[in-house]
Predict the 3D structure of the following.
Amino acid sequence: MSVSKEKGKNIMQYIGKKLTVQDVEVFPISDVLQMSISLEDANYYEIRSEFSVEDGETVVATYLPYYNQDDKLTGYKRRDWTKDKDEDGHFTVIGSIRTNSKLFGQTKCKPHGKSSLIYVEGEGDVVAARRAMLNSLKGTQWEGRIHPNVVGLPLGAGNATEVTAHNEEFIRGFSKVILGMDNDCATEGEKLKGIKKGAEATEDIAAFLLTDNIYMYKFPEGIKDPREMLDKGMGTELGKGLSFNAVKYTPEKILSLRDVSVSNLRKKKSKGIPFRHMPKLTHMTGGAVTSELWVATGPSGAGKSTIVRDIEFDIIEYLRKGLPEGSYNPDTVTKDAKGLPRLDGYIEGERCGIIRLEEDEEESINSLYAMDMRVDPKAFCGEPDLFLTEEEHQRIHNLWSEEDRIKIMDHFGSLPILSLISKLKQLVFMYDCKWIVLDHLSMLVSGLRGGDDRKELDIIMTELAAFCKQFDVFIIAVSHMKRKNFEPPKDKETGEPLPFFVPVRKEDLRGSAALEQLSWVVLLFEPEELPNRSRGRVRVVSAKNRRGKKLGIADTLWMKDDGTFQDASEWEIMGESFYLNGEEMHCFSDNL
């Protein structure tokens, strides 16, 4: 090895040593013929080289710098030119390069509201695209006045979504994003192995950003990437094409019947996560599955958040332990590496994301721990000391932390739509949250300066529905309902109030028709009001059910003292008590 291009100045102390970032920083900057990188461009990007110890002239390795989000140099990608690109070790890393690193070339960019960002695949493509754009400006009034902003992926096409997520704020600082990923795509066999190439990276990035300012540069027939185009003397065409000829990205795919197989047509509808306290709802809806948006509503005090938290716990239990026994056919169910029964399409490491805008993270976490212990969550959150010691609390906390199945957003109050979508994307792409609980939609828009809650809810529902389908995510969101006047029934002879269930319709959702129209499932929670004005049972109603089709009253629940639910659909009221087959189940005068 030599780090010097000048003969006689070989720095021998590096031979046999594991290089550090600090070591590479003293390596010289040189042109790199293998990547068509000039000395000027190598200087601009601070690309360093290693030379042969035999002649001190031949570049044997190239070092491409990467920075973290604080602009600290953390690593170099080393391209070993003594190895073919198909050989192991032709690319290695000195230091650290991660998906949360800045994009290659990002530190050289100057984003502002009217500028464009060119987003390509490899480091050589970054250099080639910028050089082509600069060359195309020579002799024009714009020479020296336009600063091309070009960036590339640090870890290849397979990590395009996660890398984009970590650099989303930077990318959104540009008025236009032009994608120039490699002009190739993965074969069907490669797709089965999870391999992605340029076409898949383009789809992933555009789908993640989900904005209307995404453009694509279409390479000429037979050209793979910007570097090849520049090498073939088509630099001017490339430079002008990136500046003026990019076309708007359109994700729609038009299918013919040949694109659809009979095996797909014969697929049974997916069965989802069952709800342990709501078997009738499970039967009617098929359970919770990804790609669907559910909305739950009911009057104040109906127990919306409590019942949704019960669904949340069922989802988390599935992520921790797989499908519960008896809820699946053991001969056909898919099992993961640990032998746990899973839904079709389950991805190792899935998590549940929790966004509760009216409670702090301690309450969200402690409520789940209480349900795991089968004690009343509200009582436990109020005074944990009554239920377990600090050491026992630490033990359950350590267990859940090690399993790492939940992520909680630390936020209280209203949240702008773009911020919400950004947070959702972080949960999905950075933390693998395929299941999300959002409590509640009304809080999202209350307090925002726009003032038009109905319009804000329309936009939120449109974004959420598209988000679920686009990224194969399940979201259950709580919504408030309109206030309504209702005359309680009374005994005709005595005039005394009678027990009754508060009727709820999906049209009662507060704020926007989109809450009903864009949901896959709408759940209504109808509380029973007892003569003593306390809450009795709660009816769960399927008011919209796009997949399962069945509508109507599902489960009737009673919340027990430990905070769990039991079926109360067959209970009868006699006097001041509930009875089942002559046995007293509960005296509601005790609620006073």
Summary: Residues 289-313+346-553 form a domain with the Rossmann fold fold (CATH 3.40.50.300). The longest strand covers residues 535-545. The radius of gyration is 30 Å. Residues 5-13 have pLDDT under 50 and may be disordered.
